[in-house]
Amino acid sequence: MLAMLGPPLLVVLFVTAHMGLPSPAFFFEHARRLPALARRLSGRWGGVEIPSPYHPAPGSPKRDLDGWYRDGDDLYRSAAVPAYLARLRWIAGDSATTRDLWWMALNPLIGGPLALLTPALISGGLVVVWLQRPALGGAAVLLGIAVGPAALRWHARWTGALLAPARANAGQVLGPRVLTGLRLCASVALAFMAVVLAVVQVLAIVLTATRLWPDAVLAGRRYVSWRRVRLGAWTGVRIAEPYRGEPLPPQPDHNGSYRTMWGEFGTVHRTRESAARARRWQWIVRDPASWRDLAWLSLELPVAVVLAGPAALIAGGFVICWLWVWIHLLRSVGWQVPWSPDDLLHASMPALAGVPAPVAGMAAAALGIAIAPLVLRWHARLSRLLLAPSKAAVMSQRIGELTTSRTQLSDAQAAELRRIERDLHDGAQTRWIAVGMTLGAVEDLIARDPEAAKEMVAKAKALSVSALGELRELIRGIHPPVLADRGLADAVRTLALDAPLDAEVRAIVGGQVAPPIEAAVYFAVSELLANVAKHAEASKVLVDLRHTNGVLKATVTDDGRGGAAAGSGGGLYGIRRRLEGFDGVLTLVSPPGGPTVATLEIPCALSSPRTPSSSEKGSSTC
Fold it and tell me: In 230-350, which ranges are E strands?
């Protein structure tokens, strides 16, 4: 009976998935009851326990602090839509769903005969006995009783082959390849969008270059930038942005007019809008990336002709199989369909006469999927020739970034010097002045009131101790003494010892780091540990410090709640600005729910190694 329930349920799922019903997740989720019943019966009757293979169900959506429910980048007032989308992704993304569908389709052919073997032998034997053939009928009944337990075990093992949790399945192997094939088909469709944008740019140049062309170029840039990101995500071929920075707003002259210069020639503009439009036009014309984008957009159509071959195999193969299923489904319920995909295939390709349409379709789709990754990578590499920045552009951009970072570093150093001056003036200097004034009063009192003089001396001593403490704190903020005495590894261990949570340090440095880089990494790690203690709600943090291939790398990992971001003006933004002065980078990975991994990387060379030392927290080797 279970075997016979599979195909009707499969038809219901097929129809609900294709007819646009509002809740396909509802039908698929409740359809799991049939495989769940088969698992229970396999354990009770066949002695084969089959655990549930499904991923845990998603929890209820949580309301944000502002009262909205979030699903990715979309916000909703009600929890109904995010909850439905989460359950839909849960059903569709679980490989056990695919195995359930295969079981429903194959169980009537495999599990059904196994389940019917014993009842068929017993009932047939009884019929034969009724027909007055007791010996033959009795033998059939006894054989049915004898093979019954074995048939149940075979049926349970067959059920577990598809319905048990799988270590590796066909979906995990074929899924990425099928997805690559679909991306290839999408690339062919997107080529027509590229051609439209190229035609719009050419028409804008012909009709009114100064007014419409910049807007057309910027619209094309948004599309091309999106395609760069997609090509990198689909093929691993990363393409950097080549565009120059936008021009600054025009500033008026002393007479209120605006000037734009083009080499040795210039133009006077009466309005700010006219000058801004002229600067924008010059920016577009002078940027080589504008012309390279136009060339790429124009070449996408002939390139799409090459991509269309495997894409046609994939799309055509799947469409033929899809039509074959639907037409045979309609015929099974009594509808008269005058043609079939077999007729269409054999009429268009007589060489395939006699080959069923599903076989030909699956073979064509498999061939297209097999060559899709190669063709897609070829397209990405060809696109990189035009869309990637030239060597001159890369060098110019790098010089600009270094100039900006050096300027920011100089500004930060100047601000730090002003802070030190202010701290000295308002703190230690004031206390030392008070010490001097107190000692001056002691000189007047020491002859006539020794006891009062002693009290003043004690007060001066306390002031000097306080001033010395402030100086030490100030020096520690400039360059901690432990860095000069013990090196970066021991300094980071000291930070771990002072951290208000369980901190472990693993250090493999193998030499001495330059003092400016030591200080930058030390204060960056200190800031990261402080952020973990304040905001991450973490219980443990791991600091991994090592020098490999000419790069000093420090990784801070915590088990907190995640969701950290290096926004402008925050502590992480300050770390990034500090590292840029040394050509360093900060990489932050902090998904909601954690863990958060912050990685600092600075290129540097090492000098003579320091003497290694131990640490109370963590293990290390220097």
Answer: 258-262, 265-269
Q: The whole model's pTM is what?
A: 0.48
H or E element at residue 68: none
Helix H, strand E, coil C: the string for 466-496 is: HHHHHHHHHHHHHCCHHHHHHCHHHHHHHHH
Unique residue bearing structure tokens 């009466």: 270
The DSSP code sequence of 428-451 is IHHHHHHHHHHHHHHHHHTTT-HH
pLDDT tens, 356-380?
Answer: 777 888 888 888 888 888 988 999 8
By the 8 A CB rule, do 538 and 500 touch?
no
**Residue type at 301 in one-letter notation:** L
Instruction: Please say whether the beta carbons of 116 and 150 come within 8 A.
Output: no
User: Is the pLDDT reported for residue 595 higher than 80?
Assistant: yes
Q: What HEC string does 528-549 produce?
A: HHHHHHHHHCCCEEEEEEEEEC
For 127, the 3-state DSSP assignment is helix
Which of 606, 358, 349, 350 lies closest to 488 in space, CA to CA? 606
Q: Which residue has the higher pLDDT, 56 or 9?
A: 56
Say if strands 258-262 and 74-76 run parallel, antiparallel, or are unpaired: unpaired
Find, among 455, 437, 463, the residue nearest to 471 by Cα.
Answer: 463
- pLDDT tens string 290-345: 888 889 999 988 888 888 888 888 888 888 887 777 777 777 767 776 777 777 77
Cα–Cα distance between 202 and 220 in angstroms, integer? 12
The CA distance from 146 to 138, in Å, is 12
| C-alpha–C-alpha distance, residues 33 and 356, integer Å | 34
Q: Is 311 within 8 Å of 185 (Cβ atoms)?
A: yes
Are the CB atoms for 279 and 250 separated by under 8 Å?
Answer: yes
Residue 40 CA to residue 160 CA, distance in Å, equals 11
The answer to whether the beta carbons of residues 409 and 579 sit under 8 Å apart is no
